[in-house]
Amino acid sequence: MKTGLKVLLFAEACFTIAAGMLGPIYAVFVEEIGGNILDASSAWAVFMLTMGIIVFLIGRWEDKLRHKERMVIIGYVIRAIGYLGYVFVYNQPALLAVQIILGIGGALNIPAYDSMYTKFLDKGKEASEWADWEAMYYIMTAFAAIFGGIVASVFGFRALFLIMFIFSLIGMASSIKLMYLYRKVLGIFKISA
Hints:
With about 190 residues, this protein is an all-alpha fold. Helix content is about 80%, strand content about 0%. It has one domain (about 5-185): Up-down Bundle (Growth Hormone, Chain: A), CATH 1.20.1250.20.
């Protein structure tokens, strides 16, 4: 497995853990800030709709980008800000704002990430190396779900959100190595502005 894939997998594992810690208990948090099931589903719908529309539009633009690693990193930065934003959510409008931020970050990140991941694949190992991504996603989400439930029940949601933010910072920091690795794949050794 190429180093680029390892970096991408590690960075995304950190973000998968961050998101996975909240996923199963999201509705409980929404209820804690005064919302109900409809509020939880509406906030999730806002996230998905934001991400869906922007990813559709941005994906076509990212096809033309030579330096996709920048979009991966920018997307990670925005997602990290979104996870930190949960700390300051005490009502439904603030929750919707965070969901929009996370949707924008994901939409900027995912097409470029998938494109880079595909570029780093070893010929003849496409299925197994995509399986590595899928395995990472499901296993990390499973562990994150348990860990998130424990943290939220023992220390509360604010502590959970700070831990989510820390994991996202680790993932974001590790993705900076992509600036060099992706240029190497493209045959660009001079770092351009």
